[in-house]
Design goal:
about 550 residues, alpha/beta, Rossmann fold, five-stranded parallel beta sheet, about 10% strand, disordered N terminus
Length: about 550
């Protein structure tokens, strides 16, 4: 039917011819996008190849492993580090493409680059950090650089950007993945990111419709409920989706959350709601592109169906075209075959085929030079660094008075639970704290190497403290990974000393700890080497803080 070339399909069969050629079950198979794991066993790989060959699966979404945080909700498991994950990913893509008669649509979550799923690849700042950037062209360059990397790897579809609003400090799953709390700014930043991906011919999906930001429940574990009325939602959570849909998007990913204002008070997941997908998204908002589910293994929906195939049928009947990470693809194909209307099957197939035609068209020749990741991250650091409170000359006066350094935390790790980019590690002696210590010859204390009692004793008689915060995790659970002794020390210093804070983490931590009034507080957002370097330059008066805080802390 089509030339079997994973990288490019120059001449696709017309959709009507394809529809008439494939069997009903082969048509339905194109709707399914099971999870594929980079670090699977050979036995698992062969089972996936058989699934593709025998059931005409339409695409795959890649994850790191079955133990990673993105796929494991039963409790902590050891995530095995694999420095050759990228090579392994490319090998698997080639094997799986070879097993398929129709080229597979390969997808991945690469919100901040392949590093979200793959070790030893370039990692870019989280969306929240990008939301602080003054230069939006840098966000476009991030989107384009990520897209170019995906293309080279054999990936066609990036499940990004997140266009949820960041309005709930306790949100356990969105937070740092959102561009911020302002609907217009989120839209502008998402538009810049999408522009970059489009330049490289990589598909995108805006998520998680109709908005997952203002929730306190992790949909991986339970069903969140968005309580606002429809009028409010249209001005906030739904606003970025509406505006971007008007401009044209490749796909919309529907989240697993209930929005009673859109379902006449019924508590049902948007991802399984015909009222929300067919009625609101397609009918009221006029979106006629591909709708893809969020991962269907997530407990918000997967725990409610006992019989294999029921969940997949419910998702398709609700109006989804692509069923991502479906637990039971074979049973799902059979259930849709037996129960879905021929009209719904045809419509969904036509949408997916058009998306595949777009994905496999000749890649765009992109002569545009893009900076290396380290240089782009350096530019981003200079554009994002934010003076949250205080005056620039206050830091200079602080330096003249003399000070000691206290560094709390060990530095943020990747969201997946593994250090995915060795270039993101801070070389000993090159952290912001170490550089300041060497430059000024002042005393330095670190909670990772000294006890809190030792630090208290060493600070006796010292009034001015440069407090460097390097929280181990970016999510708000468990106080961003800081232990109770560290938290107690931070609060004591805030109450008793004159502080200048440099914070290399989620700005919501400043709010959570009540550190709202200091001599100066500087937000760096990321614990990358480039952000430490820019922090040093700022402390020395060589760099001005140009960024704008994308969320409110008061």
């Amino acid at each position: 039917m089509v030339k079997k070339v994973p990288e490019m399909i120059p001449e696709w069969t017309a959709v009507n011819e394809a529809y008439d050629t494939l069997s009903p079950k082969e048509l339905i198979g194109q709707f399914f996008m099971p999870a594929a794991f980079i670090n699977d066993t050979e036995e698992d790989v062969q089972a996936m190849e058989a699934l593709i060959r025998e059931h005409g699966i339409g695409g795959l979404c890649f994850f790191h492993s079955k133990a990673s945080a993105a796929t494991n909700y039963e409790g902590p498991k050891e995530v095995v580090y694999n420095e050759k994950s990228r090579q392994r990913l490319q090998e698997l893509i080639e094997r799986y493409q070879a097993a398929s008669e129709i080229p597979l649509l390969i997808a991945i979550d690469a919100e901040w680059g392949l590093a979200m799923r793959v070790e030893e690849t370039d990692q870019f700042p989280y969306a929240l950090t990008l939301g602080a950037a003054k230069d939006k062209q840098l966000i476009t360059q991030v989107g384009q650089t990520i897209a170019r990397d995906l293309r080279k790897t054999g990936i066609h579809w990036n499940f990004a950007p997140v266009v949820d609003m960041n309005v709930q400090p306790e949100n356990p799953v969105i937070g740092y993945r959102s561009f911020g709390e302002d609907a217009h700014a989120v839209t502008e930043n998402a538009r810049a990111f999408i522009k970059g991906m489009k330049a490289e011919g990589v598909l995108h999906a805006i998520k998680h419709f109709p908005g997952h930001g203002n929730t306190k429940v992790d949909s991986h574990l339970g069903l969140p409920v968005l309580e606002d009325n429809k009028e409010t939602l249209l001005q906030t959570d739904i606003f970025p989706f509406v505006e971007l849909i008007k401009e044209g998007v490749d796909a919309v990913m529907v989240g697993h959350l209930a929005v009673p204002a859109l379902t006449d008070g019924t508590i049902e997941s948007a991802s399984l709601s015909p009222t929300i997908i067919k009625g609101f998204l397609r009918g009221e908002l006029g979106f006629d592109g591909v709708v893809v589910t969020d991962a269907m293994n997530m407990h918000a929906i997967s725990q409610n169906y006992d019989n294999p195939g029921e969940l997949e049928l419910a998702a398709f009947t609700a109006g989804n075209d692509v069923l991502c990470y479906c637990p039971n693809p074979v049973a799902g194909i059979q259930a849709i075959f037996e129960n879905a209307s021929a009209g719904d099957i045809k419509t969904a197939f036509y949408r997916i085929w058009a998306l595949k035609q777009k994905a496999f068209q000749e890649p765009k020749k992109s002569p545009q030079y893009l900076p290396e990741a380290v240089n782009l991250n350096s530019c981003l650091a200079k554009s994002c660094i934010t003076l949250y409170c205080g005056e620039p000359d206050g830091i200079a006066h602080f330096v003249k008075q003399g000070f000691a350094i206290v560094e709390c935390g060990s530095g943020a790790q990747a969201d997946s639970g593994v250090v995915v980019d060795s270039s993101s590690l801070i070389v000993p002696g090159q952290s912001f704290s170490d550089r300041i210590k060497d430059q000024f010859g002042v005393t330095e204390f670190k909670t990772v190497t000294q006890t809190v009692d030792e630090i208290r004793e060493g600070l006796e008689g010292q009034e001015n403290i440069l407090l460097v915060l390097r929280p181990p995790q970016v999510k708000p659970q468990y106080q961003f990974g800081l232990n109770q002794e560290e938290l107690k020390l931070i609060r004591e210093l805030y109450a008793e000393k004159q502080l200048v804070i440099y914070h290399f983490g989620n700005p919501y931590m400043i709010r959570a700890l009540g550190l709202l009034k200091t001599l100066a507080t500087v937000m760096l957002y990321q614990d990358f080497p480039e952000f430490h370097e820019v922090a040093f330059q700022h402390f020395m008066g060589e760099v001005t803080a140009k960024g704008k805080l994308p969320v409110s802390l008061a």
